[in-house]
């Protein structure tokens, strides 16, 4: 059985997406997710712990599960929950788990290590990582290093192909003339994807003709090659709109803003808010040109670079920030979208409007056990509050510090947790934030109970005063 997830997806990245894709409920409303989980458990012959269905719902629809008043899942609980689900799905067979863009979240490396140390799930796990992306995520870099230290892990570095190998690849993909194959290989500089996309583009546009030595560019055409793979995708976007209708442009850009996977219900909602339509003919054109594929109750851009080309087009025209604002405000009307709402409003330069959604997004991420995402959202919130010069006396500062402390404590980063809790205590006492002070004191009690019982007792007495 094969399960795949993309850790950089806007909608249900990582482990929730891994299960949601298999259960065919990716991006679906909570009521549908609940039914899919029920079918999954009903059809399984494997014994399961009590409350398994609610826990799976909590993982895939944290907003809906919050109504059940469940305790937050720890990292180990999340990993065990997903492992049991994979065991049920594989039903005694080996599992193939494919993790794309694993660099986007340390959990992408921590979960495979958990499975390796557990040792009783027959599985091959394939992860793709962009090394340059690790430079901006120390946590992911450390987690990858720990995973690679395991004796069962094999690292395959995928670099550029040598010129001769690239020529062989090009002629293997399509029997073009040797001279043209050499030109393509030199232009694409060892990048297999660039070469394959360039050839696919030429075939789709009927730019090639057959000669004695293979396919060649038609004589009447400009023989210039694109400078980069991004240019290939940009030209395909331009031709799509030129061959269909310019009025599709806004709907296409809004779809790209939503993410690599586009829920049809969300797309329609966002387009309506922007004063356009989720044109069925646009989706038909994308599918016909192999620029998109259907998936679940929506569709997926065929490649991340296509989506990036559309977003770059919107950014160059000065429309992208407005698109993010439109998407963020539209998604606020739907359940289970808090994390995405916060990110979109932040990217749309919404200012103060983004502060509470970022906090709600961090809470949603915490409920589902995605602590790294929760920390990212809280950091963005703190930076925004400083940027807009939020008043020092506003208790939302204190709520943020307490949230930081709670998450760091769950990650056993006690020293960092204590720093945030002490800051919250100090400011709460000065500004009269009673509840914030009590919550911070209780966190300090938990912290000190590990290392200093007398101090913990003193703090506990203070909290009860």
- What would the average pLDDT be, to the nearest integer? 87
Strand content: 5-15%
Sequence of strands across the biggest β-sheet: 1-2-3
| Low-pLDDT runs | none
Cα gyration radius (Å):
25 Å
Shape: globular
Count the beta strands: 8
Percentage of residues in helical conformation: 55-70%
Given the structure, what is the number of helices? Answer: 23
- The N- to C-terminal Cα distance equals 57 Å
Q: Outline of this structure?
A:
The protein contains 23 helices and eight strands. It has 465 residues and is mainly alpha-helical.
Characteristics:
465 residues, mainly alpha, 8 strands, globular
Characterization of this structure:
The chain is mainly alpha-helical and 465 residues long. Among the domains are: 2-148, no CATH class; 163-217; 391-465. The chain contains 23 helices and 8 strands. The protein has helices at residues 14-23, 30-43, 52-60, 62-65, 75-90, 107-118, 138-148, 163-173, 178-188, 192-204, 229-243, 249-258, 264-274, 280-288, 304-316, 320-331, 338-347, 355-367, 371-387, 396-410, 414-431, 434-451, 453-464; strands at 2-6, 95-100, 123-127, 208-211, 214-217, 261-263, 292-295, 298-301. The strands form 3 sheets. A 3-stranded parallel β-sheet has the order 1-2-3. It has a 3-stranded antiparallel β-sheet with strand order 6-8-7. Strands 4-5 form a two-stranded antiparallel sheet. Helix 12 crosses helix 16 and helix 20 (396-410) packs parallel to helix 22. It is globular, with a radius of gyration of 25 Å. The model has no long low-confidence stretch (mean pLDDT 87).
């Amino acid at each position: 059985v094969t399960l795949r997830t993309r850790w950089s997806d806007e909608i249900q990245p990582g482990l929730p997406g891994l299960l949601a894709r298999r259960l065919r409920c990716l991006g679906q409303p909570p009521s549908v997710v609940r039914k899919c989980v029920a079918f999954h458990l009903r059809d399984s012959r494997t014994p399961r712990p009590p409350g398994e269905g609610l826990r799976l719902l909590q993982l895939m629809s944290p907003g809906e599960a919050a109504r059940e008043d469940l305790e937050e899942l720890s990292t180990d609980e999340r990993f065990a929950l997903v492992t049991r689900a994979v065991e049920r799905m594989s039903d005694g067979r080996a599992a193939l788990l494919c993790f794309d863009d694993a660099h986007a979240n340390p959990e992408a490396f921590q979960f495979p290590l958990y499975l390796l140390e557990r040792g009783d799930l027959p599985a091959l796990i394939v992860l793709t990582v962009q090394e340059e992306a690790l430079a901006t995520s120390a946590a992911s870099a450390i987690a990858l290093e720990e995973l690679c230290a395991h004796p069962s892990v094999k690292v395959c570095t995928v670099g550029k192909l040598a010129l001769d190998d690239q020529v062989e690849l090009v002629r293997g993909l399509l029997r073009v003339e040797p001279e043209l194959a050499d030109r393509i290989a030199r232009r694409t500089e060892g990048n297999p994807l660039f070469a394959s996309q360039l050839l696919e583009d030429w075939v789709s546009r009927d730019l090639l003709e057959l000669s004695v030595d293979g396919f060649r560019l038609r004589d009447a055409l400009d023989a210039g090659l694109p400078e980069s793979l991004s240019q290939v995708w940009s030209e395909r976007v331009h031709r799509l709109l030129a061959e269909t209708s310019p009025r599709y442009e806004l709907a296409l850009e809004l779809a790209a803003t939503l993410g690599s996977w586009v829920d049809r219900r969300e797309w329609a909602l966002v387009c309506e808010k922007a004063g356009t339509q989720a044109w069925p003919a646009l989706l038909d054109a994308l599918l016909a040109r192999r620029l998109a594929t259907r998936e679940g109750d929506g569709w997926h851009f065929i490649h991340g670079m296509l989506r990036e080309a559309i977003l770059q087009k919107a950014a160059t025209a000065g429309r992208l920030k407005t698109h993010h604002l439109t998407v963020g405000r539209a998604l606020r009307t739907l359940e289970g979208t808090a994390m995405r709402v916060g990110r979109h409003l932040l990217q749309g330069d919404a200012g103060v409007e983004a502060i509470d959604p970022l906090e709600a997004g961090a809470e949603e991420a915490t409920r589902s056990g995605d602590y790294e995402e929760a920390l990212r959202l809280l950091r963005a919130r703190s930076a925004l509050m400083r940027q807009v010069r939020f008043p020092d006396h506003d208790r939302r500062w204190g709520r943020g510090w307490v949230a930081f402390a709670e998450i760091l404590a769950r990650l056993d980063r006690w020293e960092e947790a204590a720093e945030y809790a002490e800051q919250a205590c100090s400011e709460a006492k000065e500004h009269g934030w009673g509840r914030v002070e009590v919550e911070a004191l209780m966190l300090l009690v938990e912290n000190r109970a590990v290392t200093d019982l007398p101090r913990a007792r003193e703090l506990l007495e203070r909290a009860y005063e």
